[in-house]
Design a protein that fits this description.
The structure holds two protein chains of two kinds.
Chain A lengths: L2 E7 L8 E7 L8 H14 L22 E2 L2 E2 L20 E6 L8 E3 L2 E2 L2 H8 L21 H11 L6 H5 L6 H12 L2 H4 L2 H14 L10 H5 L7 H16 L4
Parallel strand pairs in A: 1-5
Antiparallel strand pairs in A: 1-2, 3-4, 3-5, 6-7
Chain B lengths: L9 H26 L9 H12 L1 H30 L15 H4 L1 H24 L14 H9 L2 H28 L8 H28 L3
Helix pairs in contact in B: 1-3, 1-7, 1-8, 5-7, 7-8
Classes of the chains: A alpha+beta, B mainly alpha.
Amino acid sequence: MEFKLKIWRQKNASVKGKFENYTLKDVSAEMSFLQMLDYLNQQIIESGGEPVHFEHDCREGICGSCGLYINGRPHGPITHTTTCELHMREFKDHTTIVIEPWRSKAFPVIKDLVVDRSAFEKVIQAGGFVNANTGSTQEANNIPINKKISDRAFDAAVCIGCGACVAACKNSSAMLFVSAKVSQYALMPQGKVEAKERVENMVAKMDEVGFGFCSNTYACEYDCPKGISVEFIAQMNREFFSAKVCKSKK
Amino acid sequence: MSKKGFSLTSLSHKYIMAAAGAFLMLFLVSHLATNLLLLAGDGGAQFDRAVEFLLTNPAIKIMEYVLFAGFIIHIIIGVILELHNRRSRPVGYKVALKSETTAFSRFMIHSGIIIFIFLLIHLYHFFFVKLGFVPLYGGAETAHDFYPMVAYTFQNPVYSIIYIISFVFLGFHLKHAFQSAFQSFGLNHDKYMPAIKIVGTIYAVVIAVGFSIIPLYFLFFYN
């Protein structure tokens, strides 16, 4: 296969970037998208150029590192797929592929296609944990949990924090990510103890680090590689409302 | 933090936007119910009685202020959201987003601006006449004699077309707004959301069509 690649190149956060064009021949249909970029980088390095920087780690769809905006969609054209799980057979031969970094004020570009997603870490640090003295491991059945509820908490917990929801949202809103983290704890007995403080603190931090406001277009759900539902955003809205209205003054 | 009560977080904006919008959606139902009396073919007798009731009822007078507050809050929060969201993505994408979202949801600010412009025209033609800022027209005898003013205004094809276009855009706005309000209040449930979306679509069509048939009546069937 042969592709024309239009890739965003930017030396560092303080300079302006621009698109560079590359023609890549002999691409195997079985290559993953990141392998295709490795293959391109090999050729750039051999010709003495600076390789295209992009983030990656596990390459099996669970670490959330590989966020690329490909031809107008975060993680490319296949729904519920991360960039690393995307294969070149999904693209038509002899076409142009435009590759851009996530675009959001809260995710500034560090270099080329790599963005700084520490804004997500800050939101997690604000409350995305259970503050419990766990002691030694407890018997698993000590706290009975309804199967439907534990399944639902797991549906939220599959969020890999890749940032596709922010990239897909026309408002750069992070509500799907934050709501998934709020919900996974709020649904479980261990997380319920601090649910009110958690949702207040995480929402405040989400606003502080510069994400946009949600207007319920649901692009986040459509482009989430893990298929996280916007029902969790509704759950966060309920949790936050309950925290603000029902929490005692004492 | 809870001691501060409702500081304007992103979610507070959402709740206020949805609450004001929900109130305006209820208002539209009552406005349409009154306006449909214009089609009774009785020279405006029933419509005049409804207007008389609205003008003399003290509760309605209070609700008029609440209504203005609802409009102003909804518009101001809408503008704040739009400006904040534009700032949240200072560098845009080269290839436009291809996520599967409805045009109704993506263009809320645009349909909102069209409705706002219509609202100003509407206030000029009716509310400002009531306040005495605009002189009587269309053979109206008093500032509360709306039927001749309505008949005169709707017999102008340009105004009627602007009116109908505005209500088509209002329909688009409501199509997203109805279910969006439920989502903002946290009322999204896999069992009920499909029904809420269907009711929202029916509501949007009823409002858009219901208001639009009134100018068509005066253009083609009124003597």
